[in-house]
């Protein structure tokens, strides 16, 4: 009996703090020392998050795993089955720059929401002031997207210049005979690369261009420091027109804003060389698409390689889809295993920080 009382006391002593908030918690190591079952980390202890995603299940597994380490996660389609039950619990909303996104109808059904954590750097698909007016913070993932997006820019540039997709199609079609003249490309090495927008992504494109011995021109709101320019051999063009006139490849790497909407229109395309290629990895709306169509049809410029359009995806009957001098990818600039994981990791870090009220790594401030 004595022994039992003694044991019970020991146990009470060890158990008590767990049930008493604010006091020291008992670790599972201490529990196993006195033969208690390990304390289960109850699912309810994690905050709820909604993942606004419609992508394929396989791809999502890794992504969801990262989110589930810190949140009780519900995907959009499950949320829609019972919005009244889940809505009041959700504290974090994870979004990409595709739909379904942070629409007002969704936001107003989430009264406990604290953060919209965006995957990607561009937040033009979010109405940040409206979201902030609901007392909700917006975060994004700058930095981690830059290398993959710059790779995509170079990939599009090379594929368009060297007709890589056409070459593939010829190679796999037994009925086609390869005539070198039908795949005549544009020399990339030694050509002039004009980069519009010299933030993180633009600068990484310049680094890659340097590796191809390209002459690099850039236009940006603010000039880079001399050290940055010299490291990649980039020449600043205060006037964007000079860049457009001289470049063999014009790459767009600006954020979409009211100032950059339709930055490239009839006038700008007309300034470009008729042998030039336009590469866009920023946002479709940076280019006046009607003007681009005309320029491509009438030979004002030679080609376009676009990771972004408007809308996305383009309707099946859109004329851009049938032009032979257009190369399209489906807004896939960041879509590598490594970068998607880094983005999701950062989305989660941002959301956890907001929910906990600690320093937020990447809050979007207007
Ligand atoms: O980082 C961004 O803004 C993207 O477009 C990623 O897809």
TrEMBL record:
UniProt-listed InterPro entries: D-isomer_2-hydroxyacid_DH, D-isomer_2_OHA_DH_cat_dom, D-isomer_DH_CS1, D-isomer_DH_NAD-bd, NAD(P)-bd_dom_sf
Record keywords: Oxidoreductase
Location of the D-isomer specific 2-hydroxyacid dehydrogenase NAD-binding domain: 154-333
CDD domains: GDH
D-isomer specific 2-hydroxyacid dehydrogenase catalytic domain residues: 89-365
Any one GO MF annotation of this record: hydroxypyruvate reductase [NAD(P)H] activity
Gene3D superfamilies reported in the protein's UniProt record: NAD(P)-binding Rossmann-like Domain
SUPFAM superfamilies, alphabetized: Formate/glycerate dehydrogenase catalytic domain-like, NAD(P)-binding Rossmann-fold domains
Pfam family, one: 2-Hacid_dh_C
Gene Ontology CC annotation, any one: cytosol
Protein source organism: Oryzias sinensis
Entry's family note: Belongs to the D-isomer specific 2-hydroxyacid dehydrogenase family.
Protein name, per record: Glyoxylate reductase/hydroxypyruvate reductase
